[in-house]
Amino acid sequence: xxxxxxxxxxxxxxxxxxxxxxxxxxxxxxxxxxxxxxxxxxxxxxxxxxxxxxxxxxxxxxxxxxxxxxxxxxxxxxxxxxxxxxxxxxxxxxxxxxxxxxxxxxxxxxxxxxxxxxxxxxxxxxxxxxxxxxxxxxxxxxxxxxxxxxxxxxxxxxxxxxxxxxxxxxxxxxxxxxxxxxxxxxxxxxxxxxxxxxxxxxxxxxxxxxxxxxxxxxxxxxxxxxxxxxxxxxxxxxxxxxxxxxxxxxxxxxxxxxxxxxxxxxxxxxxxxxxxxxxxxxxxxxxxxxxxxxxxxxxxxxxxxxxxxxxxxxxxxxxxxxxxxxxxxxxxxxxxxxxxxxxxxxxxxxxxxxxxxxxxxxxxxxxxxxxxxxxxxxxxxxxxxxxxxxxxxxxxxxxxxxxxxxxxxxxxxxxxxxxxxxxxx
Length: 425
Fold this sequence. Notes:
Blueprint (H helix, E strand, L loop, with lengths): L23 H20 L27 E2 L2 H7 L8 E4 L3 E9 L7 E9 L4 H14 L10 E9 L2 E9 L6 H5 L9 H20 L5 E2 L8 E3 L5 E3 L6 E2 L8 E2 L11 H6 L1 E2 L1 H17 L15 H5 L6 H4 L13 H14 L10 H18 L10 H6 L18 H4 L11
Parallel strand pairs: 1-5
Antiparallel strand pairs: 2-3, 3-4, 4-6, 5-6, 7-10, 8-9, 11-12
Helix pairs in contact: 1-3, 5-7, 5-11, 7-10, 10-11
């Protein structure tokens, strides 16, 4: 899945080369200084309309301003935890860098160890560093059952220079994207997909509406939704997150970033970002759960490569709707709830962002579908993915961030005209 480039501002000079730092206390001081510096960049407008300069937004709440329980690690500690960053314990690789499974001592009981996922920043310059700072900035101050927990971070130095790493809670059942893939040996049953949709909606609702500031995720997609040992879905990878518009502003103007196939059309075309951009991405994700297909898949026949284009002819006719259902699903008891979920997706995919529902409204609608489905067709839970399977399978798909063309191929977005389905009663 291709990604757009990521920018936190248009400053040509960028950040100065990081000074050599050693020791745990220096690492913490360094991070707090970076929080304060990057906070202004995080909140500044990249490209705004006429009144932008007159609206200076308050600094993004950071570790230096709010209490945080994040642990500060050193490179030697994380080397030991990951067997020297061995490929044998590598969980995946993305635009940020590589992610490894590790074991660290528990704070509550040092004699025991807990499993974690360690993300190591790739050697690709200051842009990745800003994503790292944003992750710490966001996950250091927010906490919710449907957001992946950040355990701690590392901003240490060794013989190769500054090392930037993040340590998360370990999510043994991998990503939703993995289980929707045709390569997965454990396709998600429909009841589990509904619960995932509900969990993801809860996470977005919290970010958008349940704090004294708003966070726009900006890169909501199935590969950024991870599953814990109980199959609870949690949002992850906040490197592209952005503080929502302040009072008096309707949007945030930014460089366009995100993932092809998930980005809202108005954001792609204008760079104007609102929480409704995440709502669009969530609508795409619902159809991903329904169809089992990726939003853009170049390996499919030409007429089926763009999921939203492919499904349109089948939405207005209930008899044709079953054509788009994931063939790996047991269809006997899911048809009605799948149609209802498609109706919710269509509301999220309305062309005018002002007419899309808020995530709290989406959550309410999805919850109704979940409750009606569970009462009529409960299903047993899936078995957890074992570590041996994780080690033997290929690593996660590489989501490299690429420079977006001046004239992106997004005409298909303009063609989207969702039709409401008539659900069976």
